[in-house]
Model the fold of this input.
Amino acid sequence: MKIVFTAKISERHQEVLRSQFDQVSFSFFTSKEEAGVELELADVLVTYGEDLTEGHLKQYKNLKWIQVLTAGVDKMPLSYLDESSILLTNVKGIHKIPMAEYTFAAMLQVARSLNETFQKQQRKTWDPRIRVDELHDKSLGIIGVGAIGEEIAKRAQIFGMKVLGVTRSGRENPYCEMMYKPEQLHQFLPLCDYIVAIVPSTRETYRLIGQSELACMKSTAVFINIARGSVVDEEALANHLKEGKIKGAVLDVFTEEPLSERAPLWELNN
Done:
């Protein structure tokens, strides 16, 4: 069996794989361009998957399995893979702890006015008027209670937050006080002080958070997107932020990445 990596991994991990699976032929590269013709011989491809097209896969005649080293597979040629015999697997849950911690870093940054505090520090300005808040007793709405969402919900309970969740089924979850379906977003959003989106990029989630959803949010709400840029209407979000219709937003992802220097989101202070 020949396994080709186009995702960079450390030399230490390369040695571990070679020593534990000495009957397997491993080839390690950092891109598909570097791998070149090796890909045409591969039985298994280990990749991040963001640059693979149907045309590429048709060239890899021997390929039987693609292992994507991320949770999301939305940038893969899924229609072609559905019709082929190539197995596609991902690493669901690999990001659950770091992204849960990131979410709390984002909420605490807003609640404790850490950006403003840092700016004052840089200017050597002592300002006792900076307002700070607590997460305790605040409501956290999680759109997409999967592996990451559950990790966030667990931590929210420790902080004394009220947790509401959204999933396609709306089934009860032990870490959420109330569960909703996507069609109930307009009932769900007005209840939340913090809203975090953690859903994949699909036809159903395209601009899931648009003008009407933003209009449902509290004026004190903070929206956090750790899903995909396509999940939110960025123009509508920028307008709501500019007009102060919601308190703030923390965005880990964008429709266009890297975010254009001309994007209005750069100019906003919230």
In short: The chain has two domains: 2-89, 96-267. DSSP finds ten helices and eleven strands in the chain.
